[in-house]
Amino acid sequence: MTRLLPLPILLPLIAAALSILTGRSRRVQRIIALTTLTANVAASVAILVAVDTEGTKAIQAGGWPAPIGISLVADRLSALLLVVATSMLLAVLVYAIGQPGAERNHVGFQSVYLLLAAGVSAAFLTGDLFNLFVAIEMMLTASYVLITLGGRLDQVRAGMTYVVISLLASTLFMATLAYVYAATGTMNMADLSQKVPELPVGTRTALAVMMLVVFGIKAALVPLHFWLPDAYPTAPSPVTAIFAGLLTKVGIYAIVRTQTLLFDPGDLPLGLLLVVAAVTMVVGVVGAIAQHDVRRILSFSIVGQIGYMIVGVGLFDLAGMTAVILSLVHHIVVKTALFLTGGLIEHHGGSTRLERLGGMMRTAPVIAVLFLVPALALSGVPPLSGFPAKFTMMAASVTRDEWWILAVMIVVSVLTLISMMKIWVNVFWAPATEGDGVPPSRDKWSAGPALMVVPTALLVTATIMIGVFAGPISGMAERAAADLLDTNSYVDAVVNSEGVG
Amino acid sequence: MSIVLAATAAALFGVGTYLVLQRKLSRVIIGLGLLTHGANVLMITAGRRGDAPLIDPDDPRSASQFADPLPQALALTAIVISFGVTALLLALAYRSWLLSSDDEIHDIASSDEGAAAAEAIHLETTQAAHAAVAAEIAAAALDKAAELAEAADAGADADDDGGGGAHEGPEAPR
Questions:
Q1: How would you classify the pairing of strands A57-61 and A70-74?
Q2: A491 secondary structure, DSSP code
Q3: Domains, in order of start, for chain B
Q4: Which of A82, A311, A472, A483 is least crowded, fewest Cβ atoms below 10 Å from its Cβ?
Q5: Where are the domains of chain A?
Q6: Please, are residues A30 and A110 in contact by the beta-carbon 8 Å criterion?
Q7: Banded pLDDT at A177 (limits 50, 70, 90)
Q8: Residue range A41-50: average pLDDT?
C-alpha cells in the first residue's frame, strides 16, 4: 500500500513530459492528461482509505533510512487534501477543455497544468522541509506560466507582481531553511520534530514566526495579501479557479503542518495570530464588497476565508484544528465551483463587470442555480458545506472563551453573504443592460458548453454532499486533527518506514 | 571565514532589498538575483566547514573533518530554481517592454478604472474566442513579416552599420 505514495507525484510528472512530446496532437494530449489525473484521483482515494484505516504511512524514496532519505508521508490530513485537490484538478481540466480559450490556444497548457498537479501533490506528501520548498517552487513556477498565458499587457503586469512577490517569499523560505539547518542539522520533518524542542525558546519562536511569514505570503494573510486580488483575476477562468482552490490552501497546509509538527503552542504568538486572523477576515470581506467585478469580488473573498482557517491555527487545539481541516475541504471545493461559475457567467454575458451584466435570472437560470448554491455555502448557510466548517470553528472559539473572535466571525459571515448577494443582485436580478451582453436569443436552459457546465455542476453537488455527509467528514477531520496534535504517530511512521530503491 | 560569509550574505540582502524597491523592472530583477544569492550564501554558512567531502578510509580523522555536503546540495538546487524563475522574469520583462515599450513597473489595476481598462482588452478573448484566434494568427503573420523585413533591412544596413541587426530579438513569447 505504501508503494502508492509516490504515484500522485510521479504520474503527472511523466505525463507532463509525454504531453510535451505529443504537442502536435491536441487529442492525444487531452487523453494523456485526463487519464493521468483520473489515475491520480484513484491513487489518492486508495491512499486515503489505507491511511484512515491503518494510520500514517511513510516511504523513503531512494532507499536511504529515515533522517537521510527523502521521506514521503501521508497522514489523514495530507491524504484527505490530496483526494480533494486531485478531484479539483480533474474537474477543472475538463472545464478547461470545454472552454474556448486558454487550453485550445496554447500547446503547453496541458503539460504545465500537469506540473502544477505534481507540485501540489508533492507539497501535500513530502516529509522533508526542503522538499516542501521544491514542491512549492514547482507549483509556483507552473502557476507563473499559467497566469500569464496569452501574454496580454494587464496579464504581464499583474503576473510580474505575482512572480516577484513569490520569488521574494521563496528567498525568505530559503533563508529560513538555512536557519533551521544551522540550528538543528536536519531537514527531515519527523527528525526536526524531535530536535526543535531541544532548542532555546527564543530560537524556536524566531523559526516559527519566520515560517509563518513565508507561508503567510503564499496563503495571502493580511498584511501579506495584496498581490492576490490583483494577480488572480487576470488569468483565464479555469486557471483562476484552480489557483483559488489550491494554491493558497497549500500555504495554509504548510502553516498547519509545520506549526503542529515542529513547534509547541508555547513557541507561537497565538494571541497575535488570532488578531491577524480577524484582520484578514475583515479586510478580505470588506475588500470584496467594494469591488465591481465578479472575479475581483471572488478573489478578495479568498482572503476573507483564509482568515477563518487561521482562527483555528490560533486556537491550536483539537476542535480548532478539526475546524481548519473542515474549512480547507469546504473552501477548496466551494471556491473552485464559484470561479468556474464565474467563468460560465463570463461565457454567457461576455463580461465579468457587474454593470455590464444583468437579467441572467431570466436568460440563464441554470447558471443562477450553479452560482447560488456555492455562494450560500461560502457564507455558511446551513445544509451546505460551509455550515459544519463555520459552526465547528465558532464552537471551538466559544470553548476557549475567545468571544471577540466569535463576534468577528459572525459579522464577517454576514458580510460574506452581502458580497455574494452583490453579485447575485447585479448579475441575475438587475435588468439586462443594452449593448455589450450576448442577446438572450440562445437556448434558455443551456448554460454553456456541456464540458464547462458538467464539472461545475458536479462541484456544486459536492458542496451539497459535504453538507449532507457532514457527520462522517467531521469524524475524519477530527481524527486527522488528533494525528496533527499527537506527533508521535507521524514520527513513528517515518522512522519505521521501508525504503524504495 | 564565517564572518566574511555572513557579511557577504548581509551585503547581498541589503543591496538586493534596495534594488527590489526600485521602479525599474531591470533593477528589480537584478535585486531578486542578489537576494537569492544572499539566501544561498546563508545556506552555505549553515553547514559545517571542513575538507572536501571525500573520506579517506586510512585516516580515521577524515570522516569527522569533511565539510557538510547537504547545505551545498540544497544551495545548488535553490540556484537552479532561482535561475529558472529569473529567466522567466526576464522573458516577462521583455514581453512587457514589447507591449508598452518601457521598463517601469506601473501601478496595476487596483482601482475600478484600471479593471475596466483591462476589461476592454479582456472582452476580445472571451466573447469572441474564435475571432481572437484568427487575430492571433494574423498578428503572428504580421510579426513574421515584420521580422523578415527587419532581417532584410539589417542585411542591407550591414555594410554601413554593423549594429543594424541588434534590434532583432527572438520572437515574443506567446
A1: antiparallel
A2: H
A3: 2-100 (1.10.287), 112-167 (no CATH)
A4: A472
A5: 277-489
A6: yes
A7: very high
A8: 94
Chain segment A70-100, per-residue pLDDT in tens: 889 999 999 999 999 999 999 999 999 988 8
Residues ≥6 apart with Cβ < 8 Å to A80: A48, A325, A329, A476, A477, A480
For residue B124, give the C-alpha cell.
Answer: 476580445
Interface test with A, best of B122, B133, B143 (most A CBs within 10 A): B122
Q: Which residues of B touch A291 (CB under 8 A)?
A: 112
Interface of B with A in 7-66 (CB under 8 A): 20, 25, 28, 32, 35-36, 38-40, 42-43, 45-47
Interface of B with A in 97-136 (CB under 8 A): 99-100, 105-106, 108-110, 112, 115-119, 121-123, 125-127, 129-130, 132-133, 136
How far apart are the CA of B40 and the nearest CA of chain A, in angstroms?
7
Report CA torsion sign: B122, B123, B127, B130: negative
Residues A390, A409 contacting (CB under 8 angstroms): yes
**Do the Cβ atoms of B123 and A350 come within 8 Å?**
yes
Q: Counting Cβ atoms within 10 Å, is residue A266 exposed (0-12), middle (13-18) or buried (19+)?
A: exposed
And the C-alpha cell for A51?
491511511
pLDDT of A226 reads 86
d(CA B42, CA A344) in angstroms, rounded, equals: 48
Residue A167 to residue B173, Cβ atoms within 8 A:
no
Chain mean pLDDT for chain A = 89
Do residues A63 and A57 lie in contact, with contact meaning Cβ atoms separated by under 8 Å?
A: no
Grid cell at residue B103? 521598463
Chain A residues in contact with B108 (beta carbon < 8 A): 154, 157-158, 161, 230
Chain A from 322 to 351: CB within 8 A of any B CB: 346-347, 350-351
- Is it the case that residue B123 has pLDDT exceeding 50? no
Nearest C-alpha neighbor of A286 from the set A222, A242, A338, A354 = A222
pLDDT computed for residue A264 by the predictor = 84
What are the backbone angles phi and psi of residue B3, rounded to the nearest 5°? Answer: -60, -40
CB atoms near residue A185 (< 10 Å): 17
Write out the E strands in B6-100.
none
Distances in Å between the Cα of A215 and the Cα atoms of A172, A252, A255 are: 10, 7, 6
**Residues of B whose CB is below 8 A from A347:** 126
Question: What is the pTM assigned to this prediction?
Answer: 0.87
Q: What is the b/e burial string over A35-53, where b = at least 16 CB atoms within 10 angstroms of the residue's CB?
A: ebbebbbebbeebbebbbe
Q: CA of A370 to nearest chain B CA: how many angstroms apart?
A: 20
Could you tell me how many CB contacts below 8 A there are between chain A and chain B? 154
Q: Searching chain A, which residue's CA lies closest to the CA of residue B25?
A: A160
Query: Does A68 touch chain B if contact means CB atoms closer than 8 Å?
Result: no
pLDDT value, residue A121: 95
Give helix A129-147 / helix A109-125 axis angle, nearest 10°.
160
Q: Are A298 and A331 in contact (CB under 8 A)?
A: no
Burial of B167 (0-12, 13-18, 19+ CB in 10 A): exposed
CA distance from start to end of chain A: 16
Which among A134, A156, A293 is the nearest to B77, CB-wise?
A: A134
In contact, A336 and A87? CB cutoff 8 Å:
no
pLDDT recorded at residue A375: 94
